[in-house]
Write a structure and sequence with these properties.
By secondary structure, this protein is an alpha/beta fold. The protein folds into two domains: about 25-55 and about 95-205, Rossmann fold (3-Layer(aba) Sandwich); about 60-90 and about 215-400, Rossmann fold, CATH 3.40.50.1100. Helix content is about 45%, strand content about 20%. The chain contains 16 helices and 14 strands. The protein has a six-stranded mixed sheet, with helices on both faces. A four-stranded parallel sheet has the order 7-6-5-8, with helices on both faces. The chain has a two-stranded antiparallel sheet with strand order 1-2. Helix 10 (about 205-225) crosses helix 11 (about 240-250). The radius of gyration is 19 Å and the shape is globular.
Length: about 400
């Protein structure tokens, strides 16, 4: 990896080699240019940086700690550590970029934040940011996900957001993105689309990555301070890929650190039973950007599924697509049952209830530890599992 990696990627047109870009209707091209120009003009300013650092320290509770899983490590081997993004305010990593996006919106004079959400963590984080800055907030969420993550729907409403149920298609994350983009198109002047991951048209993948880099910067310094060395492996779950890119950026230059992005294998690798874009997809265009994409015979986005609502997206961030091709990150998968096993193991051995999304990364860390018992593994625990407890107990408790 180049020392100038973050200046080289993305290109000025928003590409990560062949991936990314901005494939947009003309009505949005000018607005995206305004957001891009504002991001570079505003986010690098002393006032913006100072305000964001103050928010992270005094409001979000950053830095979040790195924690050693003593009992989990004793049972499975290896030395398993967690970057505790579940302790970030609102319970997940999402607030890292939501506060940044909302702060940018404030500087741009926007009045309303619009976004999609899958598991609801991005929706809760954006509703929180809107409340903090006194902005309106509209969150689009598929009806299937609203049922699975009902506590987060309640949180969004308490925080003052309007939650728009999405009732078409599979009623999950892809349809929520479609719906939110349609709403944004109606008034791109006074509103801003705050996408929930490192996906979408340029400049969103870059913006979200840059705001999430704080995770990797903190984690690298903390791990060195705790152990005197770097981890052998870093694992993170990947749907769109915001938490993964956040922690990976801290270690991209460290070739001795193996990086693993963990996709949802769902129930099986049969079509419609998983959301493993890297494993089973091919390059395609969705929601204004090019990346690895699960497609049907006609080249349309294929149906997807995961037990974790935040991972059931047919595409993946363009930067992840590039890192896959460069062989800097290995993308592998975990099935639903393995993720549920890890959910209960971490809860009962360490007293930490993980989000189902994060459970995929924990499950992979357990497999790595069993395979290489002397290895050190850092997991990005991207969120807590409060939102999942009703769904898990209703569907899985009898097996545990």
């Amino acid at each position: 990896m180049s020392e100038n990696y973050f200046k080289k990627y993305p290109s000025t047109e928003g590409f990560y080699n062949q991936y990314g870009g901005a494939f947009l209707p003309p009505v949005l091209e000018e607005e995206m240019k305004k957001i891009n120009d504002a991001y570079f003009a505003i986010s690098k300013s002393h006032n913006f940086i100072t305000e964001l650092r103050n928010i992270r320290k005094h409001y979000q509770g950053r830095p979040t700690p790195v924690y050693y899983c003593n009992r989990l490590s004793e049972k499975y081997g290896g030395r398993i550590y967690l970057k505790r993004e579940d302790l970030n305010h609102t319970g997940a990593h999402k607030l890292n970029h939501c506060m940044g996006e909302a702060l940018l919106a404030k500087y741009m004079g926007k009045k309303k934040l619009i976004a999609e959400t899958g598991a609801g963590q991005h929706g809760v984080a954006l509703a929180t940011a809107a409340a903090y800055f006194g902005l309106e907030c509209e969150i689009h969420m598929g009806e299937v996900d609203m049922a699975k993550a009902h506590p987060n729907v309640v949180r969004m409403k308490i925080l003052g957001a309007e939650v728009v149920p999405v009732k078409h298609g599979l009623k999950t994350l892809k349809e929520a993105v479609d719906s939110a983009f349609e709403a944004y198109l109606k008034d791109p002047v006074t509103t801003i689309y705050c996408i929930g991951s490192v996906v979408g048209p340029h400049p969103f993948p870059m913006m979200v990555r840059d705001f999430q880099r704080v995770v990797g910067i903190e984690a690298r310094e903390q791990f060195l301070d705790m152990t005197g060395e770097l981890p052998d492996s870093v694992t993170a779950c990947v749907g769109g890929g915001s938490n993964a890119i956040g922690i990976f950026t801290g270690f991209l230059e460290d070739q001795e650190c193996a990086l693993y992005g963990i996709e949802p294998g769902g129930r099986s690798l049969e079509p419609g039973e998983h959301a493993a874009s890297m494993t089973k997809g091919k390059p395609g265009i969705l929601h204004g950007f090019k990346s690895y994409l699960l497609q049907d015979e006609k080249g349309e986005p294929a149906p997807v599924y995961s037990v974790a609502s935040g991972l059931d997206y047919p595409g993946v961030g363009p930067e992840h697509s590039m890192l896959r091709d460069l062989n800097r990150v290995k993308y592998d998968l975990i099935y639903d049952k393995e993720a549920i096993d890890a959910f209960f193991e971490l809860s009962r051995l360490e007293g930490i209830i993980p989000a189902l999304e994060s459970s995929h990364a924990v499950a992979y860390a357990i497999k790595l530890a069993q395979k290489e018992p002397k290895t050190s593994i850092l997991v990005n625990l991207s969120g807590r599992g409060d939102k999942d407890i009703d769904f898990v107990m209703e569907n899985w408790a009898k097996d545990y």
